Structures are given as C-alpha cells and as structure tokens.
Amino acid sequence: MCLALHGLPRLPSKKGLAPGVVYCTDTYPPQVNGVSVVTALAVAGLRARGWRVAVVAPRYPRNPPWRVRQFVNDFGNPDLRVALPSVAFPPYPDIRLAAPAYGRIARTVKEFQPDLVHCATEFMIGRLGQVAARRAGLPLVSSYHTDFSRYTEAYGAPWLKSTVSGYIARFHGRALRTYTPSQMARADLLALGLRDVEVWGRTVDTKIFHPSRADPMLRLLNGLERKFIVLHVGRLAAEKGVERILDAFRIARGLLPAGSLHLVIAGGGPEEPALRRAASPDVTFLGVLDHRHELPPLYASADAFVLTSLTETLGLVVLEAMASGLPVIATPAGGVAEHLRHEENGLAYPAGDVTEMAHAIVRLCMNRHLRDRLAIGARQTAEGLDWEGELDRLDASYREVCVAHNARARLHGAGIRPVSTVPRSA
Questions:
Q1: How far apart are the C-alpha atoms of 297 and 177, rounded to whole Å?
Q2: CA triplet 409, 414, 417: central angle to 5 degrees?
Q3: How large is the C-alpha radius of gyration of the chain?
Q4: Other Cβ atoms within 10 Å of 356 Cβ, number
Q5: CA proximity to 395, closest of 157, 179, 224
Q6: 76's torsion region: left (phi>0), alpha (psi -120 to 50) or beta?
Q7: How far is the C-alpha of 378 from the C-alpha of 308, rounded, in Å?
Q8: CB 285 within 8 A of CB 234
Q9: For the domain bounded by 211-383, which CATH number is listed?
Q10: CA distance 102 to 108
Q11: CA dist 401 to 5, 37, 142, 176, Å?
C-alpha cells in the first residue's frame, strides 16, 4: 500500500491540510449495487493513501421496509459523511431520491476545503455537486458507471435514448476527467464528444473473493451437497434480464438427470416478486447479502456463475465470480467482453439465446475436466487485476488533475490562453 508521495505530483498545502476530495454520489453503502461498492472501495483506498475524503450521499433508513434489503456492514467510512434527506423511489424502493439540498452540498465543499470534487453519479447529488464545484472554483471529475441510454430499451422507452445520451454527454462534459471501468464504455463516451476519459476501476479484491472461501456447510445445510449449483448475483431489475436465466435453467434441468441441478439467485430489486412466482422449487432466492462476509463463501461454494445482462460497463459480479474460481457463462457484451474468454475462463453465448445458455450449463455440469480448467483460467484472469495498483493510479490521476487545473488557473489569471489538451489514451 503506497502512503508516500514519491513520484506523485505535489499539491499546494491548504493550511497544513492533507489533500482532500468530496464525493457527491446518489448511491453509497448501505445501498447495494456495483457503483456503491466501487465508490466505497475508492474512499477507503484514498484514505489509506493520505487523502481526506468527504462523502455526500442520500440518507438511508435505519430500519428499512422489508422490501428494501441493504448491506449489513458499512465499509468505506469517510472522514466526513453528509447524509441528505431522501425518499424511496416508488417503482424501486431500494433507490433513494435525494432532496435538492444544494446549500448542504455547497457548505460541505466550503468547510471541508477539498482539492477537487468527484461526482460519481449523474443524478441529483452528482449534478448539484458539479454546481458547487464550479462556484467554488474547484476541479471537477466524474464517473461513468452505468449506460442509462441502453436502459431505455429495457424499460420500453427506446425513443428516450438520444435524450438520455445527450444528458450524459453534457454531464460528463463539465468534468476535467471522467473515469469509466472499460474500454467499450470509454469508446461510448468519446463518441459523445468527451475528451479526457480514463479507464479505471476494472478490478476485484482477490483476497476477499477466493476459492479458499468455499464452505461445504452451505451446501450441506441447504441439502445441495450432491447438486451442481448455478449461481447468479445481481440486482433483480428489468435491464438485467434475469428471467432469461430461469428459462435457460428449465431447459438445462430437462436435459440432465432429475435433481442434479440447482439455481441460486442472490440480490434484490423490483423484479424479485415476479421472478419468484415464475421459478420452480429448485431455485433458491437469497436476497441481498453482505458483500464482505456472506457473498465470498457463496461464490466459492457454487459450481458456475451465469449472467445475462447486456448493459454492464464493468460487470463487477463477473470479476468476483472469477476471483472465486467460478467458470462464467455470459454474453461478451459491454465491460464483460473485456474479461470473458470463451473456453479459457468461461463459456460465451449469443445475446438473449437461452438455449445456448442452457447448453453451456449442461456442458459444465457433465464435464468436470472442462469445469476445473475454466475455474483455473477464471482465477488467473482475476489475479491479473490488482486493486491496490488501481488505487495508486487513482491517487496519481487526482493529483495530476489538480496540478493541471491550478496551472490553467494561473495562466488564466495572467491573461494567457492555455493550450487545449489532447484526448487521453486510456
């Protein structure tokens, strides 16, 4: 873990304060999703590298309704956490809609005295964070985690795609640098006219997610010790297409000896009631699990991981499964395409083809040699993604942005027009 500043740009001292960043995000633990996980890990990593970190996020209920499932633990604790009043989004109660409390955000920026502001989401808090950063004269960076333009098709409103894309372009166009977890997502942003886009965050904690976390008691207590367990982890929302996994599971089950296959689904969301109604008795729903304590042994105790989403900019669950030694069955789309290698660490199938998904499940169930070989390849893929190194890169990138911003401000103050930057390579 790098705590020294050797080789890193030095920032001007603010009354002896360590460098600081304010995160403005519309999702954060205890809410559960890939964005909240990556943001919390970044917060923890930056603090370990000497940064002061404040987080402005929605306030979450201490005793959420039974429909809303959250993390048990709260990792990524910042130096300062500002919780804005929020209400549940009726169609998806796990999501909190924050109040437009610009004054709280602006006051946080003023009193915390950060060196930059990072807007991690494109909604209310992220947008107001941009306004606060601009008015304070601070450098602003952003994150692009989710391809909302493609979500419009999943929710039956494809005519909104260009409108959503335009908003995404304007939002990230205000940032000096945008971080996104895959080359494909970066290409999408460049096509929208953005210039400084850095691929960052395509990694996984290979110590927490590890094959050694397998727990035979999980299978024994649930009567699954002799079954082939197919696992899916993720939000149960329309854009994830989890109903296709149920369809593929039915086909696979019909091609295998009775009682040899079991599907486990971990996660929550608005589609959960419908999915439960459509599932057979040999499908187990676990709801949202604790990310650090419950998920790792679940991954490591399964036999294969299946994903059907086509909108992932990263696919963090795919990397967690690979780190746990699970062969992955998925479509090589979006960020998943950068890690899934057919016949090396998993099996690829065409988008939406439930029959091919089913055949992949059957192949792994019937061929132990193939399963073991792909499991080794999956773990090797994950081991090549170093989280500590990625956090070092974020530390250096922040400093670079701050130094460049301060240099431009000095030139502007002297009446000199700065030379525009060239697009960032990666």
A1: 37
A2: 70
A3: 22
A4: 18
A5: 179
A6: left
A7: 18
A8: no
A9: 3.40.50.2000
A10: 10
A11: 16, 24, 12, 7
Indicate if 211-383 has the same CATH topology as 20-203+386-413.
Answer: yes
Q: Can you list the alpha helix ranges (DSSP code H) found in 49-123?
A: 102-112
Quick: pLDDT tens for 31-59: 878 898 899 999 999 999 999 999 999 99
Beta bridge partners of 86: 98
Q: How many residues does the chain have?
A: 426
As a whole number of angstroms, the distance between CA 149 and CA 143 comes to 15
- Bridge partners of 264, per DSSP, are 231, 284
Burial class (CB in 10 A: 0-12, 13-18, 19+), 414: exposed
**Widest CA span of the chain, in angstroms?**
78
Q: Does residue 67 have a pLDDT over 50? A: no
Domain limits, the chain: 20-203+386-413, 211-383
Digit-coded pLDDT (tens) for 330-378? 999 988 999 999 999 999 999 999 999 999 999 999 999 999 999 999 9
| Residues in CB range of 354: below 8 A, 6 or more apart | 244, 247, 248, 251
Task: For domain 20-203+386-413, say whether CATH 3.40.50.2000 is its number.
Answer: yes
pTM (two decimals) = 0.84
